[in-house]
Amino acid sequence: VVTSNSAADGFAEFVAARERALQRTAWLLTGDWTLAEDLVQTALARCWPRWDRIRRRDSPEVYVRRVLVNTWLTWSRRKWRGELVYESMPDEPGPGDHAAEIVIRLAVRDALSSLTDRQRAVLVMRVFDDMSEADVARALNVAAGTVKSTAAQALSKLRKDPRLAELMERESL
Amino acid sequence: VTGSEARLRQLLETAAGDPPHSIRLPDVHRQARQRRMRGAAAFSAAAAVVVIALAATVVPAALRSGSGNAVAAGAMGRETAYVATTANEVLVISLRTNAVQKTIKIRAAGTVQDMAIAPNGRTLYVLTAPQPTSAVPEPSRAEVTPISTATDRAGIPIRLHGFGQQILITPDSQTAYVLAEGSGLVPIDLSKRQPLREIKIHDASAAVMKPNGKTIYVSSRPGIVAVDLATGGSLSLIKPPRPGSLAYEPVISPDGTRLYEPLVGPRWALLAVNTATNTALRPIAAKFFGLQLAFGDRSRTLYVDGIGAVLPIDARTDKPQRLIRLPSSAGSGTIASSPDGRTVYVTDTQPGVASASWVVPIATATNSAAAPIALREPDWSPMIMAVAADGSVYVGSSRQVHDSAAQTVGLMTVIPSGSTTARKIARFGGTPVKIVFAP
Question: Distance (Å, rounded) from C-alpha A123 to C-alpha A147?
Fold first, then answer.
């Protein structure tokens, strides 16, 4: 029951400590910062009412990530994700980027978009978030073997992406 | 981890870079920390809010209220709308031309937190308080600036102690009560422009006044405190009958017989209070999560704005009705009722590269949603909404300036009565905080 200040404080501390990491994961899933912010916000909003129970778990973050990934999987199944219509483009530029970073960012985003939703989720959680196969399995509610095979399929697919393969081949990154 | 996985991880690290903005905590959280999610009020999302002092921009308390704006505003006249912003400005908008006639600068310490108009329509009162910082998480001063609606000029601010977050005015326009978050209510004698002795309420977080002006209900951590103004401020505590945090601002039915406030625990519920006896009724439970409330259809139906849906509740039986789905399920927006109670309006935002927003009208006779009305400006988040006496819907939106997480710009939009398209009124600095209408 979320009744105590300590629960609220604990939630605030968790968000303060992990929101950037969660946002980065969300970007890798969505390829878009605005959507990543919305995704993290939504996941946190869904976790908050249950926070007193979540915080008593061994790893609250695994639970939050599970909500994050499952929320994204739900979003990605929606038809509106297929097309984004604007009446006009945003009129202000985004924050400055270095050219090399942009090259990497675009290559990674494009390569990740070639994966299935589940492959992308497994790869991001396993490789980027450095979660164990067991934790990823718990988060996605699948068997550990499925995580292993899905990760292998995802890596194999990424290696076939020429731009990413070239970047991975470089000595210095 | 193999070598290629390590290289891939480096690439992912570089690609992900640094997030451009900090996440705002859900509004409910801000509330729970004394109803200082902001202190913090989440999920401003909306609660939201998300609503929610860890946020890059601290959202004033008035942004938490959806229905309060609309119901109070709807009862007022039809000539002028006043919009207070966090840039400490009040925009004066003609309701005939929907053009900004004047911008009134508020020269007071702190940032606008709330605004109210005296029921006699003569004076507007703007409440300002310093934003909390890590050094001073609970500021203990506030100012109330009077503005004459005859001249649209600001007077000398009234200074008071306490972290003012909300201002309420009695129906006789003689007394204002400022909710000082965490400490209580500060009465102000408006004829003398002088603050009176504070009514202490530990962990006070939000307040609402009964339509007859005799009682103010204050949300606090242990429960809702009823302050009897007629007897000089005697208090009674109404404890929720089940565990949970009182998560948002309470609302009172237009006939004054019931008070409702979301009660957030392991399961969401709505606390209902009989205001005749000041006793808690059986909480209304539903598989739902929503924070903003508005009455439609007079006092017969209460509408709760939640994630992707609106829950109607029959206020005569306290029974939840069938959910009304919104176009997006990303999060809750704001909700407001038309003055005649026939339509409830909800804002809804679809996340995306450039997010899209709508206003969804809901007919209270049938509890059915009409076609969403696009707000047409991508990337803006609706923050406040109010319905004028003629049925025109005014929406205040904001967005962060891309190169500064702490700076925001605002936008006012109107959906004229009977129209299904939105028109831009003006852009301005800061976030819109509150809309009120004056005769």
Answer: 9
Which A positions 3-62 lie with beta carbon below 8 A of chain B? 3, 5, 7-9, 11-12, 15-16, 19-20, 22-25, 27-28, 32-42, 44-46, 48-50, 52-53
Which tens digit of pLDDT belongs to each residue from B380-407?
888 899 999 999 999 998 887 765 555 7
Give me the pLDDT at residue B29, please. Answer: 36
Residue B411 bridge partners (DSSP) = B397, B427
- B262: β partners: B270
Token look-up 């819109």 returns: B432
Task: Kindly identify which residue of chain A lies nearest to residue B269, measuring between CA atoms.
Answer: A49
> Quick one: tokens of A76?
């990605």
Mean pLDDT of A137-164: 86
Task: Give strand pairing partners of B219.
Answer: B206, B224
If you count residue pairs, one on A and one on B, with CB atoms under 8 Å apart, how many are there? Answer: 195
* Distance from C-alpha of B311 to C-alpha of B40, rounded to nearest angstrom: 26
Whether residue B355 and residue A90 make contact (CB cut-off 8 A), yes or no, is no
% of chain A beyond a pLDDT of 70: 77
Query: B288 and B276 in contact (C-beta within 8 Å)?
Result: no
Q: How many angstroms separate the CA atoms of B319 and B305, rounded?
A: 16
For residue B301, is it left (φ>0), alpha (ψ between -120 and 50) or beta?
Answer: beta
Are residues B25 and A36, on separate chains, in Cβ contact within 8 Å? no
Contact call for A15 and B25, based on CB within 8 A: yes
Give how far A115 is from chain B: nearest CA, Å: 15
Question: What digits encode the pLDDT tens for the residues B168-193?
Answer: 999 999 999 999 988 899 999 999 99
Give how far B80 is from chain A: nearest CA, Å.
30
Single pTM value for the model: 0.64
The pLDDT score that the predictor gives to residue A43 is 85
∠ CA B331-B332-B335, nearest 5°, is 160
Q: Which H helix or E strand runs over A155?
A: helix A144-159
Counting as low any pLDDT under 50, the low residues of chain B are: 26-78
The rounded distance, in Å, linking the Cα atoms of A11 and A22 is: 14
Contact B182, B39 (CB under 8 A): yes
| DSSP conformational letter for B95 | T
Torsion of CA A43, B345, B295, A50, to 10 degrees: 0
- Tell me the three state secondary structure of residue B170: coil
Q: How confident is the model at residue A4 (pLDDT cuts 50, 70, 90)?
A: very low
Chain B nearest CA to A134, separation (Å): 15
3-state per-residue secondary structure call for A14-53 = HHHHHHHHHHHHHHHHHCCHHHHHHHHHHHHHHHHHHHHH
The answer to whether the beta carbons of residues B367 and B322 sit under 8 Å apart is yes
> Rounded to whole angstroms, how far apart are CA atoms B51 and A84?
27
Between CA B64 and CA B73, with CA B68 as vertex, the angle to 5 degrees is 130
pLDDT at residue number B175: 96
